[in-house]
């Protein structure tokens, strides 16, 4: 029971991080991407901030796309871990976690309408959904395997306080 609470706290914290990142004005968000490009030694931060540099703008766009996929994939995995204790079946939990993540992605885009220099894009919701699908598939595969191994299944049932016998 304690682990379930910890997982929910981690899920809510991840959602808060997404909210905080989405709350950053457009110019600061661009600086974040430029900083990441600089730290990974791809291009310097100054180059990344040059709006006339087509390569830099392309790299920034790529970083932003990947950020959506990775961040929302992680959120879906956390939702999955949170929901499994209530649903108890791998595939059903996957569906619920994917739907919850996409809904949060939609609310994230609506929130960005009210942030200076930011906007809402349906493509970002699609990226969020793709990231969520990847995270969901990873968790479904892991939990389907867990459901097939009796000793691990027993352990997971104990963690989630389930009384589910899976054959």
Automatic annotation (TrEMBL):
Keywords, sorted A to Z: Membrane, Transmembrane, Transmembrane helix
Listed name of the protein: VanZ-like domain-containing protein
Pfam families to which the protein is assigned, alphabetical: VanZ
Domain VanZ-like: start-end pairs: 8-142
TM helices/strands, residue ranges: 6-23, 67-87, 129-146
Claim: Transmembrane is one of the keywords in the record: yes
Organism superkingdom: Bacteria
